[in-house]
Amino acid sequence: MRALLLVLLAAAAAQVRAADDDAAALSLADKAPTTTQAARDWRVFAEAVWSESALRGGTGAEHDEHLFLDVHYDKTFAPAWRVVFADLLDSHWRERFSHQSAVNTVIDAYVSWQWRPDQIADLGRINTRYGVALGYNPTDYFRANAIRSIISIDPASLRENRLGSVMIRGQTLWTAGSFTALYSPKLADRPNESAFSPDFGATNVRDRWLLAGSHEISKNLNP
To answer: Which pLDDT value is given to residue 135?
Structure first.
């Protein structure tokens, strides 16, 4: 009988300690800081690649050097105003540094105005992407001629690192959906392969309009 009482007392003490530990954990959770660190305006990524290939017959070797510089800037500079800039520079050297080639891609360069919480207008060069597939999207209407430099064959990279199209875009939101209208004007007749050309002829070779809307009919249907 005495042994049984000791066991019951030990179990009760363990339950009390567990309850105290839970209360302490909840107290720490309540005291946890609620502030979050603001995202940086600038994001810069650089990658350097060097390779050497031996020629057949032992007649020598070939050297290749690549430098990728990826820059993103996203800044709210005034109430309701925001500027976005994204650029990719792909530099390539072969054999000697004097044999250099470069391709610059302006991914985004636009100003955004959100005059109401549910209405936004954008003006500038915007990499507009439609469709949720990782590879080919039949609704990705602005993909044609937009890739200046293939730094990866990853379909996600090809969608992200391509030229934006010059356009004016407006969007309105509501509880269960959104509606977007944009106009992309003709700015040039043909592409320009110069290293630092904005290459408007690749993305803005004709006038284009696009209207897109979505509405959540149910949890499993959002056409």
So the answer is: 81
